[in-house]
Amino acid sequence: MKWARTFSGKSICAGVATAALLSSAMIAQAEDAEFPKVGDTILTTRVAPPEGHPLSEVISGLEYRTSETKDLQLDDFNNPGFLLVDEAEEAWSTVDGAAGKSCESCHGDASESMKGVRAAMPKWNEAAGRPFTLENQINACRTERMEADAWKWESNAMLGMTAYVGLQSRGMPVDVDVSGPMKPWFERGKELYYTRVGQLDMSCSNCHEDNYGNYIRADKLSQGQSNGFPTYRFKWQKMGSLHRRFKGCMENIRATAFKRGSDEFVALETYLAWRGTGLTDETPAVRN
Amino acid sequence: MAQAKPRVKVPKKASKDEVIAIKTLISHKMESGQRKDKEGNVIPRQIINKFTCEFNGKMVFGCDLEPAVSANPYLEFNVRVPESGTFKFSWVDDDGSVYTKESKITVE
Question: CB distance B23–A86 less than 8 Å?
């Protein structure tokens, strides 16, 4: 799959620099690969899978896009996702709700406090007794601590804030904890991933495990990794959440889609995050 | 679209007569006028139909935008800078509003 390794105008010598950052298990990988870079941040788009993983190599969706699309993502000015990120940066320090607080009142500087948060999501929330996605966590903060209205899942405010918080983890490897109370959610997600549904009788794995790298009509199938979400998608002409993507996939196979934020999608997100273990967070990514 | 927000990237410094690249991006839905809503009514067209860039009051780049241009239009172009001055960028919306942004450049 040589096409995936060439990056127009962005070729870098990843050998030494990357090896220093990665654990020893990944060094063999890093030495022969050239990874894309955004600013000074290296995006690990190919990585050896964790134990028990069904794939031989975990590959980011970025590798399957055209050089034009990659160029957009790899430049923060050109990346249209940053329009919402800029708005969220303002919202971070804007007071909202009855408690007279902003995100900043508790969390301070986002570039410090939110580092690595996105990479570990979804995460078990003891108080709620269920896993929290980034959207759940933001809304819990808004309703409980700020006493403000919850944001809608697919609202610009929510997309911007998840992208802004996610951006603080950009370049950090995805590493979710799927043990303990997360185990049943992980198993449920796995079950959903491999269950055939809809009139076309397809499961996630039929495309994203059996056929990644092949064409589906005019588009190249990726492994369906979640490390770039929320993502600016050309088809949507705006940013969209992971659950919107799930919904789109399910509608494509003519199944009745679950709702955004439903238990099913949270379970699937949990399993999918594990499938992308080791890939770096790319939020806000650009896809077509 | 009151919240249309422009982003502009102009180098802060340049040498005399240097050709510099300018990048612009603006958030706008660029509604084409070809789509219908759930009830079947046509969603009225609302796009940015014109973009201009002035340097010290003189137009150096401009273009018309058509309904086929995607949301959040991104424009990149080159300009030769003979002297220090101010770039003024304007986006003209179908509804008559004009979004503007200025940035300065120093020529050494």
Answer: no
Contacts of B103 in chain A (CB under 8 A): none
Give the residue from chain B lying closest to A72, CA to CA: B74
- B6-9 β-sheet, strand order: B6-9, B18-26, B74-81
Please report, in tens digits, the pLDDT of each residue of chain A (288 residues total): 444 444 444 444 444 444 444 444 444 444 445 888 888 888 888 999 988 899 999 999 999 999 989 988 998 888 889 988 988 998 999 998 889 889 999 999 988 899 999 999 899 999 999 999 999 999 999 999 999 999 999 999 999 999 999 999 999 999 999 988 999 999 999 999 999 999 999 999 999 999 999 999 888 999 999 999 999 999 998 899 999 999 999 999 999 999 999 999 999 999 999 999 999 999 899 998
DSSP three-state, residue A4: helix
Interface of B with A in 32-91 (CB under 8 A): 70-72, 74
Instruction: List CB contacts (< 8 A) between B71 and chain A.
Output: 237-238
| H or E element, residue A85 | helix A82-92
CA distance B56 to A171: 41
CB contact under 8 A, B9 and A82: no
CA distances from A148 to A151, A241, A260 (A): 9, 22, 21
CB contact under 8 A, A80 and B25: yes
ipTM: 0.72
